[in-house]
Task: structure prediction
Amino acid sequence: MLPLALTLGEPAGIGPDLALAIWHRRAALNIPPFYLVGDEAFLRRRAAQLGLAVPIAAVGPDAAGKAFASALPVVAITTRVTAEPGRPDASSAPAAIESIRRAVADVLRGAAAAVVTNPVAKNVLYKSGFAEPGHTEFLATLAHEATGKTRRPVMMLWSPELAVVPVTIHLPLREIFQHLSIDLVVETGRIVVGDLTDRFRIAHPRLVVAGVNPHAGEDGALGEEDRTIVAPAVARLLAEGIDAKGPLPADTLFHEGARARYDAALCMYHDQALIPIKTLAFDHAVNVTLGLPFVRTSPDHGTAFDIAGKGVADPTSLVAAMQLAARLAAADTRAKAPP
Result:
């Protein structure tokens, strides 16, 4: 199998720490082969700061798999990184962006199996003039530039215990109803089912759709949106042959018995999705972007500037992201293989 392309992320954050640490513990952690897209000299400095004896090999993607057994393969970017742990600087945003661009290009040309992204600091990117709302939208833009095809990316938080999809994401609560629509719920459901079928290899995915109001609106007594938006969307999904149930009260969707009856839960807003999965799988949930022409996963945590460079960051979520990326990429390859 081809190696995974791991992005640098925010260089002042814990992403570089985690990349160095998981290579150092690669056998014990059962890490699939990967290479890091970054600045070789910067990574040598960070390894020394962490006290990790990690040999680094500057290679191209085609040599990364062979190098992985004896050194951390690093595919070079042109940006020289000067940021120190916990202190982003003028090199942070250009390095993070270039690393993402290179990783996506490598996967799209068949040099890497999947993209795994280390966390970025959005405020640092915005200050540099970064125009996209976040990682997910930037990846979709890069995919469109390369393929000419447009499809809305969908964020899924996945763990063995639970998979959730927020239909609306980073919005103030007061703005949710301005964006939520029948079409948005239906399109999200289609994309989720497509990836669950093709990449997660679930033959007949089962969706549940959470109501947006308490008690799924109580037949309009607690809000009309479940009757006018969510229920018609579920009806359309059913008419398309998708196994979907809803709107269902969100407060009874996430206990153990309920979770056994579905493969993914569509939630109407950010916290409705993320609170349950972070309660059940805080240290090992994985962010998966659905709807892209390549596999992309990410750990479900931020840059953690306060502990960067201290060698105490927990690699569990990044390890889970890499293992899932390898699994999905293998399934994607089989799905695309000629009969």
Summary: The chain has two domains: 1-151+293-339, 161-280. The first strand starts at residue 4 and ends at 7. The longest helix spans residues 316-336.
